Task: structure prediction
Amino acid sequence: ALAYRTKGLTKVYGEGRSAVHALRGVDLDIPQGEIVVLLGPSGSGKSTLLNIIGGLDRGSAGEVVFQDQNLAEMSDRQLTLYRRNHVGFVFQFYNLMPSLTARENVELVTEIARDPMEPDAALALVGLRERVDHFPAQLSGGEQQRVAIARAVAKRPTVLFCDEPTGALDSKTGRAVLNVLKDVNEKLGATVLIVTHAASQAAMADRVIHFADGAIREVVVNTSKLTPEE
Ligand code: ADP
Ligand code: ADP
Result:
């Protein structure tokens, strides 16, 4: 089954002579349950694509089909419900609330989700059982990103979108975070879409989408998926 199918997805920022063509007709299939890595240089349109299929932004033209519904035809309200019920986001800089503990950061999501996990169970899943009462400033970068992952998965999302999730981490810590994402994929069955400019992250993917200048250049199905080395 497919998690997503995009058809002719286009995004233009601005207009006239200053228009930026960020997506130039993207046709993409993302199978349910896979780890998909979207790989391409900075400015190639990766975040734009992720934000549109994640329901944070809208395309200028084309379709994004999720479970037989075209996101392009949804009202703002429907799009909000789609995000709330189906989508988790992980960003490069964690976006944690500094005044809240790890558990309280996760509770921001579990208090409004339909069928949430226990906050402590989500934190245990990412290896932070012993850190639930810590504040972000008391945690390392890798631990902060794990809290962000716990917050994103606590609603049991259908899809987890990760935009440069290891971009602020050293390579060893980054690999550990990628292993957490692999666990989330295996244990919760969530489809995971990772946006990155780092080719090293392709090894853990089921499918690598090579992206450049607003378009797909190549799709590589990975038949020998590797675990990121610790
Ligand atoms: P990537 O994630 O691959 O770095 P982006 O999707 O962020 O690429 O950007 C693609 C192009 O769209 C770039 O030229 C960028 O400058 C432009 N862009 C992104 N967001 C906006 C915006 N909100 N307004 C105008 N231009 C934007
Ligand atoms: P609500 O009406 O419940 O506040 P939102 O649309 O603000 O709904 O958020 C729904 C989900 O999408 C939340 O789980 C939130 O984590 C995520 N989300 C929405 N927008 C952003 C954003 N700009 N940055 C990070 N996460 C976002």
